[in-house]
Amino acid sequence: MFEQYLRNKIADAAIMHFMFIVAVSLILPPFFIIKLINTVVRRYRYSMDTIDMTGKVVLITGASSGIGEHLAYEYAKKGACLVLVARRESRLREVADRARKLGSSDVLLVCADVSDINDCKRFVDETINHFGRLDHLVNNAGIGSTYSYSTDVTKYAPVMFAIPHLKKSKGRIVVNSSSAAVLQPPQAGFYGASKAALVSYYESLRLELAPTITVSIVTLGYIDTEMIKGKHESKEATAEPEANSGLGAAIGKDFPVMSVEPCAKAIVNGTCRGDTYITEPQFIRVLFLLKYLCPELMDWFLHKLLLKKETEASPRPRGNFHESSHVSTFTNEGKLD
Prior knowledge:
The chain crosses the membrane at residues 15-37. One of its GO terms (molecular function) is oxidoreductase activity. InterPro entries: NAD(P)-bd_dom_sf, Sc_DH/Rdtase_CS, SDR_fam. The structure is a single chain. By secondary structure, the chain is α/β, with parallel strands linked by helices. The protein folds into 2 domains: 1-49; 53-226 and 256-304, 3-Layer(aba) Sandwich (Rossmann fold). The protein has 11 helices and 9 strands. The chain has a 7-stranded parallel sheet with strand order 3-2-1-4-5-6-9, sandwiched between helices. Strand 1, helix 2 (66-77) and strand 2 form a beta-alpha-beta unit. It starts with a helix and ends in a 24-residue tail after the last helix.
């Protein structure tokens, strides 16, 4: 009796695996072929007929520096009207002046803190009062520490206030996340968890809002910004370097760091193409694939590279989550640098 039962179980398992292999063999090849053709066609159409952003209104949070600043410049080159949101008014004015020179016909400055729900409602309302519409909401603002445990993933106010206006214009939401959401590098647990929550939220929101509003999720690797250099905005909105800190101190010179200008250009071009996912630098996609197919290899790679480099650069004790000198703030505009 037992032998018969065992043979039946083995036969069932064999049939199940065989059917799975057949299904994968039949479904995946045509799926990837269709996806490849669709990607080529979209890129060709975009190169031949660039989407006209002239006069369209783009709201960018965290626009005073880093990726947000250069996103403003790229949108300005396309003739978009800009709403620049950040806490540092002097830096915003500098960014606005350059954006006007690059082609933006109208730039609205709003000094606001995205962690304050009242500020979030205010800068969306000021956008509508000034322009009467909103086409792109770029959620970029935010600072984060790989060591701080005070990571807030509950504030999604800007996108909530903006959705009714984006529906009218059939607009787009762009959210900056991080490759840490997928790769989960060592000693960045809370940072990676917040970014994974961000991606999860916008994946769900993308399906809820489709097809009226589209969502582009950006997952970035190491970008040459203030965070890489160990500078973080304090609560007084001033960029302050931390001694022997920043991801740059951890990765040393052995890991490629992308310049912020081509990164911002790739994000804006991908957004205008209608890409759902935008990953920069491009090689990060290979790491994503390795993470899913060969997780042990990625674990070894990240452990050897990041932990070793961080130990050499800043021999801080592990497991002490109070060692960061600033408090990290995470909003739905989550910063991906």
